[in-house]
Structure formats: C-alpha cells, structure tokens
Amino acid sequence: MTPTTFSIYAAFLISMTGLAFHRTHLLSALICLEGMMLSIYVGLTTWCLQTQSMLFTLSPMTLLTLSACGAGTGLAILVATTRTHGSDSMQNMNLLQC
C-alpha cells in the first residue's frame, strides 16, 4: 500500500469514526461528512491520474459538485434548526415533529 493510498484511507476512516462517535452537534456531523466526501474525491482523482483513463475524468468533478450541493443543503438545515431550536445540539432536535 502506497503512502498516498494509506493517507486517503486514513482520512476516510477518521472522518467515519468522527461521524460515529461525535454526534452531539449537527455542525460536527456535517464536517465529518464533508471530510468523507473529500477523501473519496481525492482517491477518485488519484485513481484517474494513475490509470490515465480519459473515460473517468468527469467523475471526480461530478462527485465534487454533488458534495458541494450536499454541503449547501446541510448548512441550510443547520441554519434552520439553529433558528427554530436555538442551537445545533442533536439532543434538542426531535425529527418526528414538524
């Protein structure tokens, strides 16, 4: 395993464990999700560069675009819950209520 591959796997696993264990605030969960998406983006980009395939060069940009859209949606939800509940703590939110 090359050091680049190891660092990409490590970044993904650290973000995943952060998402699993530190779910007290919505902002920390969104940052962990963004870290996972960026590590997947870097891995996909290095894979496309190593294989030198022109067929898959559009997929990292598509993934980055979808990640940015997801981050924007997550931040909009964060602002909405902070305005309605007063904080971004997950204990204050009940997802079953309208």
UniProtKB/TrEMBL annotation:
<keyword id="KW-1278">Translocase</keyword>
<protein>
    <recommendedName>
        <fullName>NADH-ubiquinone oxidoreductase chain 4L</fullName>
        <ecNumber>7.1.1.2</ecNumber>
    </recommendedName>
</protein>
<dbReference type="GO" id="GO:0005743">
    <property type="term" value="C:mitochondrial inner membrane"/>
</dbReference>
<dbReference type="InterPro" id="IPR039428">
    <property type="entry name" value="NUOK/Mnh_C1-like"/>
</dbReference>
<dbReference type="GO" id="GO:0016651">
    <property type="term" value="F:oxidoreductase activity, acting on NAD(P)H"/>
</dbReference>
<comment type="similarity">
    <text>Belongs to the complex I subunit 4L family.</text>
</comment>
<keyword id="KW-0249">Electron transport</keyword>
<feature type="transmembrane region" description="Helical">
    <location>
        <begin position="29"/>
        <end position="49"/>
    </location>
</feature>
<dbReference type="Pfam" id="PF00420">
    <property type="entry name" value="Oxidored_q2"/>
</dbReference>
<dbReference type="GO" id="GO:0098803">
    <property type="term" value="C:respiratory chain complex"/>
</dbReference>
<dbReference type="GO" id="GO:0030964">
    <property type="term" value="C:NADH dehydrogenase complex"/>
</dbReference>
<feature type="transmembrane region" description="Helical">
    <location>
        <begin position="61"/>
        <end position="80"/>
    </location>
</feature>
<dbReference type="GO" id="GO:0042773">
    <property type="term" value="P:ATP synthesis coupled electron transport"/>
</dbReference>
<keyword id="KW-0520">NAD</keyword>
<dbReference type="InterPro" id="IPR001133">
    <property type="entry name" value="NADH_UbQ_OxRdtase_chain4L/K"/>
</dbReference>
<dbReference type="GO" id="GO:1902495">
    <property type="term" value="C:transmembrane transporter complex"/>
</dbReference>
<keyword id="KW-0812">Transmembrane</keyword>
<keyword id="KW-0830">Ubiquinone</keyword>
<dbReference type="GO" id="GO:0008137">
    <property type="term" value="F:NADH dehydrogenase (ubiquinone) activity"/>
</dbReference>
<keyword id="KW-0999">Mitochondrion inner membrane</keyword>
<comment type="function">
    <text>Core subunit of the mitochondrial membrane respiratory chain NADH dehydrogenase (Complex I) which catalyzes electron transfer from NADH through the respiratory chain, using ubiquinone as an electron acceptor. Part of the enzyme membrane arm which is embedded in the lipid bilayer and involved in proton translocation.</text>
</comment>
<keyword id="KW-0813">Transport</keyword>
<feature type="transmembrane region" description="Helical">
    <location>
        <begin position="6"/>
        <end position="22"/>
    </location>
</feature>
<keyword id="KW-1133">Transmembrane helix</keyword>
<keyword id="KW-0472">Membrane</keyword>
<keyword id="KW-0496">Mitochondrion</keyword>
<keyword id="KW-0679">Respiratory chain</keyword>
